[in-house]
Structures are given as C-alpha cells and as structure tokens.
Predict the structure of DNA repair protein RadC.
Amino acid sequence: MALANLHQGHRERLKNRFLSEGLDSFEDHQVLELILFQVLQRRDTNPIAHRLLARFGSLSGVLEADPTDLASVEGVGKQAAIFLSLLPSVTRRYFHDRVTRNRPRLDKPELVVEYFIPLMAGRPEEVFYVLCLDAQCRVLYPALLSEGTVKETHVHPRRVVETAIRHRAVAVILAHNHPGGTPHPSIQDKNLTRRLVQTLGSVDIDVLDHIIVAGKDAYSFAESATLPRYTEFMGES
C-alpha cells in the first residue's frame, strides 16, 4: 500500500507540473512516464521509461519504433505499444488538419519548409506530397501521394497531374523526405523534378518548388535557383 501511494504521488506531481509548466523542462524519461500513465494505470512507469530509452536510444527513437518491438520491452505490452506508436501519427494529423483548415499563403520557400517539417516529423519511411495552390499561393489541398520504404518512394507523374487538376491547382509545390539522411537531392530526385515540371507544364500548372526534408533540415529547389522564384509566379498572378 505504501509503495502504491508513493507511485500515485509521483504521478500527481508530474501531471501537475505538466499542467503548470508544459513539457519543455521535462527530461525524456519523464515525458515517457507521463505518456505511459495513460495506459499503464497500476504500474511503476519510471523503470519502463528508462528501459525504452535504453533500447531505442532517444524519445524520438521510442515514438518511431515498430509496435512489435515496443511490445517486446519488459513492462510495455501491446496496448501501451499501440498508444506510443499512435502519437506521431496523431501529431501529423493535427498539423494536417490545422493547415488545411486555415489555408495558409505559402509565397516564400521558408514558409513552405515550416509547413512541411511537422507533416513529415517522425516518418520512418519516404513520403511524397503534392501541395495544390491557388493563384495567390494559398493552400487548396496537401495530397499525400506515396508512402515508400526507408530509402525510396515511387511517384507516377500521371497521378500528380490528376491530383493537381482535381483540386483545381494553378500551381503546386512538391515535397518529400529523406528519413535519417541529408536533404541534399539525389540524381533521381533531380530527374523526377525535371519530369514533373515538364508534365505539369503541359497542362499549364506551375511547379514552384520541390522541398526535401531531413529532420529539421530542408533543401529548396527554388532557393538553389533550379526552379523559378516565387516572385516570378507572384508577378504573373
């Protein structure tokens, strides 16, 4: 009974600290403890949190881990593994919903980078987005066209064109990620960009940029002068 009361007191202190201060001052194991409180009601989550960090190396490593691997850690189990794996997807869904609802104007490369980094956060596989824009560079729809492997994703130009036309895009921005790598474009990235610029141009849809995200870093084809600048498009609008 005394041990149970001790655990309960620790839980309440962490919860109250979160309510008053947020997570910024928390250590990684404390963040995991707070998360695990929700699904492991009667367990001491402190040693479980430390085991998770020891196994996967970091908080992000835990949240990006496969549910089967999470469940194999002593004390975790299936339900907690599912809950942990759900968090990155819920975060991406939140950002997707927020930016779609608000229809932001993305008329500068740095704004596009700020838009895409949260959408791609925690993705262990390559994904490819086509961001459909109106004549004022406001977001019409962010279309997730492809989910691939850790090293590559496949995108069909025809599907990109169909998506842009369906959402009545005047222009598009392409974006994909390099999980665990650098944002520098590969030869394949450059060839795909060139092909999509030509294909979309044939139906009078401009490609304003292609953004490659790697963690918190990003590469902009427009900023590198590989694609026309936003100012050129905005001047024509």
Notes: The domain at 103-236 is CATH 3.40.140.10 (Cytidine Deaminase; domain 2). The longest strand covers residues 139-147. The chain has two domains: 2-91, 103-236. The mean pLDDT is 85.
